[in-house]
Amino acid sequence: MFKNIEKIFKETYQKDYKKFFSPGRVNLIGEHTDYNGGHVFPCTISLGTYGVANLNEGNYIRCYSMNFKEFGFIQVDLEDLSFQESHNWVNFVKGVILQFEKRGYKLHTGFDLVIEGNIPGGGLSSSSSLELLTSVMLKSLYNFDIDRLEMVKLSQAVENEYMGVNSGIMDQFIIGMGKEDHGILLDTNTLKYEYVPLILKDYVILIGNTNKKRTLADSKYNERYNECQSALKELKKHLDIKSLGDLSIEAFETHKVYIENEILKKRAKHAVYENQRTIQSLVALKNGDLTKFGELMYASHASLKEDYEVSCFELDVMVDLMSKSQGVIGSRMTGAGFGGCTVSIVEKNRVDEIIRSVYKDYLKIVGYSGDFHVVEIGPGALEIVK
Ligand code: GLA
Q1: What is the CATH number for 191?
Q2: Which of 171, 187, 246, 307 is catalytic?
Q3: What is the pTM of this model?
């Protein structure tokens, strides 16, 4: 993946460069819990964003993406890093620079950056991948003394403050902290986390991309965030809690009467139950009980579909087809929803046959094709030492 971008960088700038990689992520379970103080259980994927970069002598940055060739080289003055529609993907880069500067890490000169990504479709966090790529790059090019967790937090702040999406910390955390062949169980309330080995013996993790565009995903996402905040506000009048993630299922069932609005009640129910499912999924995995893990994945999807209402026809079709295939023990939508990807646990020996048959039936029902990727879990964002 570096070949093309190295060539472009060398031809355009005739100077040396540093190389960086930042992965995408898939969430195994724990969806829409991270802004509710709950647990999440994601892992990195070996697909991601590749970048080569070096300092320049101007007061500007010049950025080029092989994925957005139509934008050409985008040049931005470091004096004006405000959001500009026409800067497209470079807005994420600018957002990260602003967050560094806010923390006192000033850029004394500009840089040149060329990137290429191979994260398929929506829902596998290509934007967080770019944020962490930029963070790791800035740290290296400018010798900033900043630790990983701070880079994770500032990348999340780009979404919250610059892009206007109230997203939680899951994506940036796993992309910044991920480790080969491991998932991370993260408590988003305390940021305590545990690396969990994900060598599943006879099984593999399979991503199914519905190729359904995620229209209005950001506004719907913020709507869910606000609904959960409203439900929490009602509960707080009667309970000493900081977030929905503080509630056990029993406590929720006892106190849910205080949430009058039925829609808000369903949203809160998802947040509470999904958090508990995520904690249980780790126990199942540690006990080697993949069947239980799979059941929790199906329950997660049902809850995202019915109570949280962030699934869609295409995701439901794909999960349904997976659930009817021999050799699939669990399947669900992954990420924010409203399109994007599914994640399934699938018998290794049958994976080709499963992909073939789900591909065919999905095409027949939906009218266009999905695509499929067996997950390999690689490292978190890093500089590749040449
Ligand atoms: C998006 C957000 C995450 C998380 C998921 C849903 O990926 O960026 O913070 O909320 O949706 O679980």
Answers
A1: 3.30.230.10
A2: 171
A3: 0.97
